[in-house]
Each structure stands twice: as structure tokens, then as C-alpha cells.
Amino acid sequence: MINVKNLEKKYGNFIALNKINFEVSKGTIHGLLGENGAGKTTTMRCLLGLSYPDSGDMWISNQKVTKSNFKIREKLSYLAGDFRPYENFTPLEYFQYILRIENNKSKLYQELSERFKLELSKKIKDLSKGNKQKVGIVQAFMKDPQLLILDEPTSGLDPNFQRVFRDLIFEEKSKGKTILLSSHDLLEISSCCDYVTIIKEGNVVASQSKDEIEKKSLKLIKVSFENLPDKSDLEKLEFIKKFSIKNNNISFMISGDMNDFIKFISQHKIIDIESESSNLSDTLMEYF
Hints:
Strand order of the largest sheet: 6-7-8-3-9-10
CATH architecture of the largest domain: 3-Layer(aba) Sandwich
CATH topology of the largest domain: Rossmann fold
Shape: elongated
Number of strands: 14
Number of helices: 10
Radius of gyration: 23 Å
Helix content: 25-40%
Structural class: alpha/beta
CATH superfamily of the largest domain: P-loop containing nucleotide triphosphate hydrolases
Strand content: 25-35%
CATH class of the largest domain: Alpha Beta
């Protein structure tokens, strides 16, 4: 559905995107994960033609993204990270205005507004930040698009409506829709997405399925020793990503070949050992 090849964007001497590459498969939820300023929004704006890259190519539904190819936007919706609707409109007036411009007869905004408990008759300028974000979500989904590009879509939502949002995107995915969403929230990405592209300082550091990332997941191993290993020795070992010491117990975060870890701890007398997989958020954090 989306193909990005060697996309580069500069602002003066600052490189916002450094020849990045990734693909988004049709019918999936694909997450762009990165800290604020990593390049997520710039990537989305380039895809939408709201910003022009210095080099590289992009395709949406096998159509090349160009300055003049407006047809490409007909079946997609966008929610900006700094979404700013017309504040003197009510949500109802705003939705009807957008739909008239696009000659779209959809009434989905009614069902979506009810789902998000959005009051339609109050001026948008009088709404809370969370309710303004609901306006943005409804306007993105109400056209029944085939592709949704959502920049930090749950910003400002309380946990209850974050769950409502997750249920909504899962339903849209089940209908064959494709969703590209950005976030700096590891939990949101790990709970929603089939694929994850991790961007750091304008570079793609990984682009993999969630299953592939989970195969490389860190392992949490808790070991009780009769005599603790030297802390300085632990700090030198690359396969130990993190550790914490409490009394004679050490909790290890391990990556890579477990044999190296077993060889190391076998040099010390062990009282007890237990192991469990860490969550995906811990694994994703290692990319940063």
C-alpha cells in the first residue's frame, strides 16, 4: 500500500530524513515509532504532498507520489499531529462542511461521535484538548477511507477512549483498511501494530513485523546467588542489557545467545533461577 525509497528531507543543514526506506502492507496496522523530532511527522507530510522531499520516491497504491498527483488522496484520510479544526464551528458543522467539500454523503460521523461520546452542538473552541482530538479522529474515519495516516492519534485522550480508538482501528483493519500511525508511546505501538518502523534522528533503525521483533525479545532472568558476581564484570558483558541487584538476587535483561549467559552464571554458585519473556516495550526500548 505504501512504499518509501531513499526518502531524504533537509531543512538547511539539518537532515530531517536520511534516505529512509520502508513498506506498509495492505490491510495492516503499521507503526512509526520514534521520539519527538525523530522524523515521523516529516515522513507523513511528504507522503501526503504537504512537504516536498529533496530526493527519493514514494508510492501509495502503486501510484507515485508527486506534486501534481492529487488523485492519490481520494481514498485516504489524515489526522495531523497538530490537528486544528475551525474553532468557531461546532463538530457537526465542521464534519458537514468537510463532507460537502469532498462531495461525500457519508453519515458515519454520527456513529463515531456517539462512540467517542463527542458533543456535536458545542463550539469546538470550547472543547477540552481530549474532545478536540476526538473531532480529529472522527473526521479521519468518517469518509470510510482505504488508507488512514494518523499522526499521534491518541494524544490527549484519556485511557478509556484510547481503548475505544484501538477497538476502532482493529475493526477497520478487519475490513481490509490500511493504517499508518505514528507514536512515541511504546505501549501503544506494541498493543496496536502488526509492523513497526523505528525512526531515530532521521534514520530507520529497524522495520520489521511485530512477530520478528518479539522473536528477538529480551529475556528477564532472576538469579539468586550464594555470592554475587562483581558488578564491574556484569557491566562489561554485551549480552546483559540491564541488571538490578537486591540483596543476593540479580534481575537480568538478556539479549542474544543464552549460552553465553549460562556460561557466565555457571561460574558462580546459584541458589535459584527463574526466567520469563519481557514485554515488547522493553525490547523496542533497546533500539533507542
